[in-house]
Amino acid sequence: MTAGRPRRTATAAAVALALAGLVSGCVAPAPPSPSSARPATTLHVVPAAAAVDPLAGWTLTQKVGQLLMVGLHVAGSRTADVSAILHQRVGGLFLSGRTTAGVVRVRNLVNAYRALANKNERVPVLVATDQEGGYVQVLRGPGFSTIPPATKQVSLPNLTGSATTWGRQLVAAGVDVNLAPVADLVPRSLASANLPIGYYLRNYGFGTTQVVGGASAFATGMRRAGVVPTLKHFPGLGQVTKNTDTSSHVTDTVTTSTSASVGVFRDVLTRTSAGTAPKPWVMMSTAIYTKIDPNRPAAFSPTVVGVLRQKLGFHGVIITDDLSAAAQVKAWSPGTRAVMAINAGCDVVLASADPSVAPAMANALMARARADKTFAAKVDAAVRLVLAAKA
């Protein structure tokens, strides 16, 4: 990292000032110019010929931290809470909640969070948020467009162009990863009865052509802006009626590994993975799919993750849906949730709603890695994928 880092107390003060700016509405500095919109988050990668092991010299604490993406409220979190969370050396931050403060003030907050998180770290943190549109748009206010829901986005004359604009707004706010678009295929027979997706108008339509076209256009626009898009929620939440965030025992008794909903993810990935722009991520659902693995939520299932890896040939980053507070996973302790997700083949554990569980997750991952060489190898493989995404 750069020389002359501020002391932790000074950085904490910067966080406090940024929080005050969001809460009190004080005058903010001018927006960054396009050339300086994104902070220096690019890794300085050693040429392949000279590279030996990208994880050489890494401690287990540093490795495990890269596998956690932890939520911090975009309207401001107490400085003490921020410091405690970042003490886990987390590799990703998720801007949670809602704000209408606008691009500049969000950028100030992100810069303050990032400065504290990057202190003494080998690589910078990634900053993510949910900017789907409609009911699910974390960032609003000056500099951010009001994004329509997916059901309306498909009618835009140039969705890719619009999504590129929305992505550039995220870049200006310091955001690297958008946990969007939704690629769930909701049958017309369910529509608003599908509580996680259809009820909130998050689906791009009721047919594969509409969903593939809409999700692909949105993801392509994000990539053109330099933002990592995230397709969710594999293998699809379209066939359930309960929401995994608020209900337990959410079960899909219809979807198989060859269902049209799985094909949607395959087709969107085919359309959006070429070139050198940021590669898309995929988010795993936490519903149970009885015709694929009846015993575990998808994010905990090597079988369901295997459909994505082997059947669809996806080799990028797999992130879980929220494992910190979702009712669907309450039967397991936070540490067990993290271990099961990484063991299943996921790469990033999302703890967005309740960041206080991050220490338990980190400790459990480290304990399992120390005791199990096979699991330790899975940790290393996941870290390498995360580092490749950061590069």
What does this structure look like?
The strands form three sheets. An eight-stranded parallel β-sheet has the order 12-9-7-6-3-2-1-13. A three-stranded mixed β-sheet has the order 8-10-11, with no helix packed on it. The N terminus is likely disordered. The longest helix has 18 residues. The relative contact order is 0.12. It is globular. α6 runs parallel beside α7, α7 runs parallel beside α8 and α11 crosses α12. β10 and β11 form a beta hairpin. It contains twelve helices and 13 strands. It has 391 residues and is α/β, with parallel strands linked by helices.
The level 1 CATH classification is Alpha Beta
Class by helix and strand content? alpha/beta
Helicity, as a percent range: 25-40%
Can you name the CATH architecture? Answer: Alpha-Beta Barrel
- How far apart, in Å, are the first and last alpha carbons? 15 Å
- Sum up the overall morphology in one term: globular
Rg (CA only): 20 Å
The major β-sheet equals: 8 strands, parallel
Number of helical elements: 12
Strand order of the largest sheet: 12-9-7-6-3-2-1-13
Strand content: 5-15%
Question: What is the element string, with H for helices and E for strands?
Answer: HHEHEHEEEHHEHEEHEEEHEHEHH
- For this structure, the CATH topology is TIM Barrel
Q: What is the number of domains?
A: 1
Any low-confidence stretches, pLDDT <50, length ≥5?
1-12, 23-46
Number of strands: 13
| Averaged pLDDT | 88
Q: Considering the protein shown, what is the CATH homologous superfamily? A: Glycoside hydrolase, family 3, N-terminal domain
